[in-house]
Structure prediction request, 258 residues.
Amino acid sequence: MSDDERDAMPPRPDDADFPARRGPHCDGLEELDAAVATCRACPRLVAWREEVAAVKRSAFSEWDYWGRPVPGFGPGDAVLAIVGLAPAAHGGNRTGRMFTGDASGDVLYAALHAVGLASRAASTHIGDGLELRGVRITAPVHCAPPANRPTPAERDTCRAWLARELRLLRPTLRAAIALGAFGWQSLLPVLADAGWQVPRPRPAFAHGAEVRLPATDGGRELYLLGCYHPSRRNTFTGKVTASMIEEVLRRGAAIAGL
Prediction:
């Protein structure tokens, strides 16, 4: 089969270039989220997420694990984006919602509720009534990775989903918060492709970092903020506290007009 013949065929979820071929053609977030959930482009991640979903953790033995890529969560007209790392094996990979069902999510959603950006202080499962107010939560990698460490190749394969998500949010998005260095470093090249000018050299991640990104497409500028990831390790050691996260969220909300 020639390259032209292959390109003319609809992309298959297990193709290595499925995100790159399918993502740019999603016309809205609903279509994008549905496409993300079918992706099987990274064999290592597929094998891991499905093994975890089959073996389960004893505390969740009665759960029917999601076991697929986890789409973004939040309204399609969000003015503030929160970008993490990847779903947790027994969190998002179990529940099917970003930052839901694990310790990191417990901290993040409590902080979002404390500053008025979430309707509830806890996110336990899809259909629990939780709503986000002007906020969209997503990640550079949509599958749970072994040891919470996606490879650079897996991050790059998944990038097309995040790029399309930001393009679809472009008309309303005013600020983005990167949770951790991985999210920050993954987000910068995508923002450059989505219509914002990223400084050279690229700004370094730090908690509380704030960078103004002028628009390159005639749209509005974007502010990028850094926040330590609310991982169990970071919160247990005190590297990040609830008040520190709330402070960054309040700043992002203020910039975005929430």
Residues 152-169 form the longest helix (18 residues). Strands lie at 80-83, 135-138, 175-179, 210-213, 222-227. The chain is about 40% helix and 10% strand. The chain has one domain: 3-256.
